[in-house]
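Collaborator request log, item 7. Partner lab (contact: R.S.) asked for a structural prediction of TPM domain-containing protein to inform their binding assays.
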Amino acid sequence: MMAIITAALLVPSPFSIIQPTSAYAADNVKDLGIVATDSITDTENLLGDSVTKVSDAIVATKKRTGVNVKLLYLATFGNTKNPSKWASDLLISTMPARNTVLLAVATHDGRLIVAVSPNSDEWLKSKNTVDALSDAAYRPLVTTSGSHWGQSAMMMMQQIARSKRTSTSTSASLVSTLVMLVVLLAVCAIVTAILLRRRYVQRQIRAGLRKAHRRHARTRR
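Returned to partner:
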């Protein structure tokens, strides 16, 4: 059984988001199309006109960070008592590519879950990164002007890029530190060898096993 990292948050009540105000509005909601692409499944049409923008951002995120982003918007996760495990099992069942992030939202359940595939790099599947992605996706959903689903996905992808840069900077800093330590150890080894050689020669001179060499300054004519 592969372990998978998830973070779950409660999202605002769905009835304040998509509740029809009349029978006519209810009919319109039923007539809304379902978005289904390789990266996005949106049965609630939450992304609306921002689908193209979000899709372009998914492609850009893959190119810049190597991370595959999957978005799933449903009414409910079903009768599951463990939404995080539900999202984890779903992601694993798709046999995801390396470094895959799933943002799963169930509006009627009021749940938002970020799951990272177990075959991801350490920086991506760390708890700190997953929590940061979850927070980034959550913030646009609780603004005073309402829930912005497209912005939620965009913010999560921006956080992926930030976390990647932080990881790269940390790795570069660690490599630089290791190189400096190696150089310092090499210098210390050379100095130690010189001092030990000098002491060895001095002991031989005192024991009469070696003659001391005197250097005479040259006189100018």
